[in-house]
């Protein structure tokens, strides 16, 4: 099996990491759409509607960043140029930061619950369950992006060291 640019990750491992990131991103976009439909159907009651901070910030919609990072990993496997490798690393680091921010916002959301109208309680409860599921997937995304970022940096540094130690052929004959 061919070895990817990343020194410790094979081509198949990199493709799997990219595919997993794309699937996580698609899952998050679908969950955003589900929450959009769920919260738009609320009825204004005496206590109001349930609009969590993660919904207002669009945290599940940030899954688009995960999709772009997964595509960039697959692109690195197919065409490993230094620019594409750097872009993949930047995207994975941004995935890590996005996931951490979304996790913090989700924890804040789940730790506080204001009373809502009894008509909207079921929707609020279902929305909180979706947030719990998304919290688990954020930690999974952090682990996938961190794995690729670590091995990508190692691979990029090995390529840089190899380019520094390479002796051009014209100078090789003079030694």
Give a verbal description of the structure:
The protein has helices at residues 11-40, 53-57, 63-78, 82-111, 121-165, 169-172. The chain is mostly helical and 175 residues long. Helix 3 packs antiparallel against helix 4 (82-111) and helix 4 runs antiparallel to helix 5. It is elongated, with a radius of gyration of 22 Å. The protein starts with 10 loop residues before the first helix and ends with a helix.
List the main descriptive attributes of the protein structure presented here.
mainly alpha; 0% strand; 175 residues; single chain
Rg on CA atoms, Å: 22 Å
Helix-strand makeup class: mainly alpha
Helix content: over 70%
Number of strands: 0
Runs in which pLDDT lies below 50 for 5 or more consecutive residues are 1-6
Order of helices and strands: HHHHHH
Strand content: under 5%
Oligomer: single chain
Q: What is the general shape?
A: elongated
Let me know the average pLDDT: 80
| Count of individual helical segments | 6
CA distance, first residue to last residue: 36 Å
How is the biggest beta sheet arranged? none
Layout of helices and strands:
Blueprint: H1 11-40, H2 53-57, H3 63-78, H4 82-111, H5 121-165, H6 169-172
Helix pairs in contact: 1-3, 1-5, 3-4, 4-5
Summarize the structure.
The chain has helices at residues 11-40, 53-57, 63-78, 82-111, 121-165, 169-172.
């Amino acid at each position: 099996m061919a070895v990817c640019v990343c020194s410790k990750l094979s081509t198949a491992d990199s493709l799997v990491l990219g595919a997993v990131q794309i699937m996580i991103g698609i899952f998050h976009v679908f969950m955003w759409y589900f929450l959009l439909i769920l919260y738009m159907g609320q009825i204004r009651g005496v206590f109001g509607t349930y609009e969590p901070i993660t919904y207002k910030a669009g945290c599940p919609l940030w899954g688009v960043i995960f999709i772009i990072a997964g595509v960039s990993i697959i692109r690195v496997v197919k065409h490993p140029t230094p620019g594409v490798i750097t872009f993949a690393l930047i995207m994975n680091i941004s995935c890590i930061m996005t996931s951490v921010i979304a996790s913090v916002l989700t924890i804040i959301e789940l730790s506080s619950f204001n009373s809502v109208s009894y008509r909207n309680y079921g929707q609020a409860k279902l929305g909180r369950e979706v947030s719990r599921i998304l919290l688990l997937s954020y930690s999974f995304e952090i682990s996938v992006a961190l794995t690729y970022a670590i091995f990508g940096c190692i691979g990029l540094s090995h390529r840089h060291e190899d380019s520094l130690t390479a002796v051009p052929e014209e100078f090789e004959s003079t030694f």
